[in-house]
Amino acid sequence: MFRRAASPLIGLGIPFVAIVVVLPFVSDTTIRVFGVPFLFFWIFLWFPLTSLCLAIAWFCFDRKDYDDDDGQRR
Amino acid sequence: MTIAVFVVILALSVVVALLSKIGVGKVDIDQYIVAGRSFSGFLLFFLSVGEIYSIGTMIAFPGGIYAKGASYGIWFLGYILLAYPVGYFVGPLIWRAGKRYNALTGPDVFRAHFRSRTLEVITAIAIVFYLVFWAQYQFVGLEVALSALGLPVTSGITTIVAIVIAFIYVLLTGVRAPALVSILKDTTMILGIVVVGVLAVNAVHGVPHLFDQAVAHRASVTMTGAPLVYAVTTIVVQALAFYMGTTSTAFLFTSRSEQTVRRTTIVQPLYMLMYPFLVFASYYSLTNVHLNNPNLAFTAASRALGPGWVVGLAAGAAALAGVLVLAALALTLGAVVSRNFVTAVAAEAQHRWVIVIVAVFLVLSAFLALSIQTLMLAVLTFAYLIAAQLVPAWIAVLYGRRVNAFAVGAGIVVGLAIAITLQLTNAPLGGVNAGLVAMVVNFVVMFGLGYLMTTRPFRKTPAAVEVEPVSAMGPPRRAGSGGEPGTSAAGD
User: Fold this and answer.
1) Which residue of B has its CA nearest to A38?
2) Which of B81, B230, B441, B482 lies at a 20 to 30 A Cα distance from B241?
3) Percentage of residues in chain B with pLDDT exceeding 90?
4) Does pLDDT of B228 surpass 70?
């Protein structure tokens, strides 16, 4: 049960929360990181982090469902 | 030098398209439209990025920041980024549905899954409608990219050249050519963007100075109020529509397996790391170059900052992106018209039909594009407004059990009517994206009718539920496409 919910929570839930829920709270600040306005910094940051979330979903949970490179689902 | 680099890039692309013919035997309709469901992760990645990072990235995105500030940049980045997690989960199921019904187009899936010719036609109309806007988007961008070259010819002539090149891609090997040309296009595009971005940062002595200037110029680098609401709601609706409504849906069918689809989406967000350079170039233009047409923001930065070869590289990459996407979308359109509108066409003749339809479509949409002048992101919004109305239908195919063809069709018709009305009347929604409102109503109508129409029990096997492969159960019950192994295996 945990496994079934974990993959969507990590792969889909975390990136959506970061962009749809958190972003409005950081969208009107004058803080800058490395000279970049925080709003842009935040979304740039989530390019690699979204890949990371999906990689975790795949390597820790979903890959088990598949046999091999070209194979069908089990 | 500018023109030489530009011409070399486009000529190379035709050579690459020719190479795509090597090793491919007789090209039948399956090979032509979905490459026989054979693409590896590598080719699927390039076909996807080739399609996603269209001319919009180099022309419309900087234009949006130039004209409207941070909020337009943020929603553009946000919806593409979130499309990948959505694709990771629904993409494999869409691929599975395509394989189960032997589908080459989205409407093929709807016809077979819901056993409804009417629904096939409704979805086909919605897709054609969407494709017309998507083609506009590319043509407007192409004009901008070509104008950067300062050629002594009219935009009509350059547009005709673009059409001819797009047609050559499609004519040769169908979907294989755009996939291979994408490799060239994305290499030149990243190179062009990074070079111009770095030059922009250098010209103003560093990133902090770039944004100091922007703030001093009263350029928007934050967002709040209605623009914020608009950005967030647009991100949500377009991220959903991306894999469930646009041309990206059909390109999933070219994959060789479900896990290829999944693994491709994992690395996709990393490709977006080129966008910071575009943001830098956009803010450079915003503060240093005065433009009447905001769509010129990126090409103007390349002209202001770089030598001739940089301008040629940037314009060449942008033009290649536009031509490539035109080729791919015209192919999708050709498949939808020849398979889903005209039913009397034999499978062997569909290939020829596609070629003719592609040619007619390219010419007609070029004429339309030459007569309009608008902010490109406004066209993008309209295209997605329409594409989003297919999201509930796809959800029904992938996960629904009780929804029938009538409920799905009613949802789409109501959704389209609301979306277009709200958009055209500029209805006050406090910034909420009209497509999102329409999509929610679409969902309510679809699931509501599906629930109410219990007098006709209707059980489907959603794509999310596995069924035995057809081969394990003997030959399919009906010859050709549209067989539905799912109904007997589950449900009753």
Assistant:
1) B222
2) B482
3) 32
4) yes
